[in-house]
Design goal:
The complex is a heterodimer of chains A (339) and B (379). Chain A is globular, with a radius of gyration of 22 Å. Chain A is α/β, with parallel strands linked by helices. The longest helix of chain A is centred in the C-terminal third of the chain and has 20 residues. Helices cover 39% and strands 19% of the residues of chain A. With 379 residues, chain B is an all-alpha fold. Chain B has 2 domains: 49 residues, no CATH class; 222 residues, MetI-like (MetI-like fold, Orthogonal Bundle), CATH 1.10.3720. Chain B has 15 helices and no strands. The longest helix of chain B has 31 residues. The radius of gyration of chain B is 28 Å and the shape is globular. The relative contact order of chain B is 0.08. The chains are: A alpha/beta (339), B mainly alpha (379). At the A-B interface, α1, β2, β4 and α4 of A face α8, α9, α10, α11 and α14 of B.
Chain lengths: 339, 379
Amino acid sequence: MLKRASFAAAAIAAVSIASGAQAATLDDVKARGTLHCIVNTGLPGFSYTDASGRWSGFDADMCRSVAAAVLGDSEKVKYIPATGKTRFTLLNSKEGDVIFRNTTWTFVRDVDVKLTFIGTTYYDGQGFIIRKSKGVKSAKELDGATVCIQTGTTTELNLADYFRANNMKYEPVPIESNEEARKNYLADRCDVYTTDRSGLAATRATFDKPGDHTILPEVVSKEPLGPVVRHGDNQWEDVVRWTVFALMAAEELGVTAANADEMAKNPPNPNVARLLGAEGALGEMLGLDKDFALRAIKAQGNYAEIFNKNIGPDTPIGLERGLNASYKDGGLIYSPPFR
Amino acid sequence: MASTQNPDMTPSLTQQYEPGEHPDWPAPSSVKGPVAWMRENLFGSVTNTVLTLLAVYLIYKIVPALADWMFLDAVFTGESRKDCRAQGDGACWAFISGRIQLFIYGFYPDAERWRVNLTAVLLVFALVPILFDKVPHRGKALIYSALYPVIAGVLLVGGIFGLEYVSTDQFGGLMLNVIIGVTGIAFSLPIGICLALGRQSHLPIIRILSVSFIEFIRGVPLITLLFVAAVMLSYFVPPGTNFDLLVRMLIMVTLFASGYMAEVIRGGLQAIPNGQYEAADAMGLKYWQAMRLIILPQALKISIPGIVNTFIALYKDTTLVIVIGRLDILGIGNSSLADAKWQGLSTEVYVFVAVFFFCSCFLMSRYSLYLEKKLHTGH
């Protein structure tokens, strides 16, 4: 009887606070005053809590930029930490507005899971780490190696594909988490550890002698990581997409967090003027205001600043720009024109 | 009498005494005392001797290394993992102590944390009259205990009486485990009792409802229920509804524990001999009177180990909140470990979390033993 009572209470509570019709995500976010951002429960350099409980990292900062563009305040973000299994469900059930959680853009996720991928904020790829003392210079020399591999991931399938394509054999050492892999690799229970190269770099940074280990040059898979929104809300999709592009365009045009205000007042060229809202009405077309890009850039800096602060060469993660350099420097980071 | 004692207290076998004059000699060391105890318990047989030596060897191997790691070589201050490693090879407790606030309060606003502390102190006062029956003014104190959930809710969430509103999104860490654990424990016992009685009821509708509820709950893993509560509910309830996630979570955990509790208590009810039921009927007691005065006190008493078992399981299951995007003490640990400055300290975090859970669960377990002893009035 009590059981029914509590169900009834729950139902009544649910109905009594029900409000009007379903609104678009942008209106929801504005009305709520906070951006609900789905992030990783903990991935070095990308999303983690610092000592004061503040979410930090590359993905967390991207959330701040979007919040600054939409709400005018980069701290109005509610972070929803999600595991690999729960992230899409949390998005589709509207618990979250956007996923910034190192999510690989794949055909099936885009088409069959009915998600909308905004673009790529970080080009990753699977790599191998090995002790320098083993004298291996290329992944092609890994025939017969024992490999530590996280089970149930796409990296496991990529590994099998790569070794089969190159007619080599390997012995898998199945493990569950990055931390476990780290311990097994250091204890020499496997010759090689394979996962995304950003993860390898982050892991190597924690070794006592990082210099004794090398990440092999081969990249055996494509892992384009980027933000994801729900299928079918084109306005919100545009807002997130062009906020991210604004960060990339800012790097191309030399706009940084420090000089953005100055550039907005005295734009050196029409491109900067349009990006920062000194000219035209691009922001209004998005349903925001003309300063949206200016606020996004001022929040955490342009793409290069966010990259360098969280995962760049001067951080413990120590990743080079590589594919993630601006197209001007030979990378793949490229923003369509703001006009 | 003093004159008859020899200096080393050894009774003389030849000494004669008058009737009633025999002094109380201490028992010989072969019967009582540490040596006798060791002979009987540790070296009583060949197997025992081998096991004892093995155990001593293991302790010798493990304890000094563990003590070194945990205390002697441990580092208590530092700014990063490298800093810690430079100072010593033991555990890097600087990581935990630097974030202890985060581990306890989660993302609860700094300025409002006194409210969590106050809630915790009030919790102790609410628990004492429930746990111990020799408390002065117990009747009045129990009224306070019954009101406590409301007081705690108001204090923690705020929004009235001038308290600043704190969203439940910001709850985290140890306080989240305790909130979910205590709520689940407090509400699952009465609901479980009702379900257990309902399952034995002669009224078909109540019986069928109880049985189907219990079987449903026991047939579904908790993580599934939590996931449904977190993400599926929004498909069923009207659009735009924002039914607090933590409340959904509390309801699910409570219902889940109630299902198990009902079965534990049903075990107790079935162990009561029929004669007790008949005796209650013979005295002309109504159903609820019979249950309250005769059956339940006995049934609950023999169910104590099972009940506490369920409580402990529930308490440990509170770490599953990660599936709905809330960080409890373990989740905070994991997200902290991803801080590149501190990466690689998982052992310290897991040991810390394990110690916390062990302390909580051990307390529950000791209390249940105390209760069993107190209620042991039978044969």
